[in-house]
Design brief:
With about 300 residues, this protein is α/β, with parallel strands linked by helices. It is about 50% helix and about 15% strand. The strands form three sheets. Strands 1-9-8-2-5 form a five-stranded mixed sheet, sandwiched between helices. Strands 3-4 form a two-stranded parallel sheet. Strands 6-7 form a two-stranded antiparallel ribbon. The chain starts with a helix and ends in a 23-residue tail after the last helix.
Length: about 300
Amino acid sequence: MSSAQERLTDALYGLGWGAVKKLPEPAAVRLGRTVADLAWKRRGKGVRRLESNYARVVPDASPERLAELSRAGMRSYLRYWMESFRLPAWSAERIRTGFEPKDVHHLTDGIASDRGVILALPHMANWDLAGAWVTTKLETPFTTVAERLKPETLYDRFVAYREGLGMEVLPHSGGTAFGTLARRLRDGGLVCLVAERDLSASGVEVKFFGETTRMPAGPALLAQQTGALLLPVTLWYDDSPVMKGRVHPPVEVPESGDRAEKTSVITQALADAFATGIADHPEDWHMLQRLWLADLDPTKGPS
């Protein structure tokens, strides 16, 4: 990305956070849907990739059904952005009532145990809202990791935004994040990680909707190293203003096997939990990038 493109990108995000959060909620909803429909009609690279990914999730879907799913997926994706731009202006009560998770006892019991808890999520619905709900409704701070973005000013915006919602944000690069996360967990803290895509050589191969991809090893390694509770979480929208979600049962660390074997088993269990939630609500899975290894172009790398 050129410096001019970076400045434009940063300016557009700045406009979003500055202007959209001042809109009345109905106007923001309409704006998000309009932008989503325009993007869907253009059928750019991201929309085509989203539709291709949905074809893995719903293999018996007709072309017409896949088109419906991708349109709904773009509307869900833009709902995420509209909400995220507006979250800093939401009242504490709006945040507390904006999310209704099922089986939240898995999380609250884990927090009460002082064992440390790892929440692992795919890119579904609005994980920032879920995080704000945890810090507001449950009054529990947590630590997360953010990928370094270009331009650096855009990364700084995201960090400031999430810290403003009560999150501790660590940079993904630099090699120090894992140690800090482990310390937080040993102290009985909460760690939240978006965890269904890692196409680097360090990613763990798993079967996901019948095909091979790689997912991050971090959640599994942290669970083994610290003894923290590992909980998959999936999120979705319905026709109401309230996001829904489910805290899945804990993923246990196997009693036998070496570290690599245990990491493989744990990460596959996470993938299976994610697949359950995504299959039930595919339109709320915002994967506009390549995910499965069969889709990678070896000359270009992941995108």
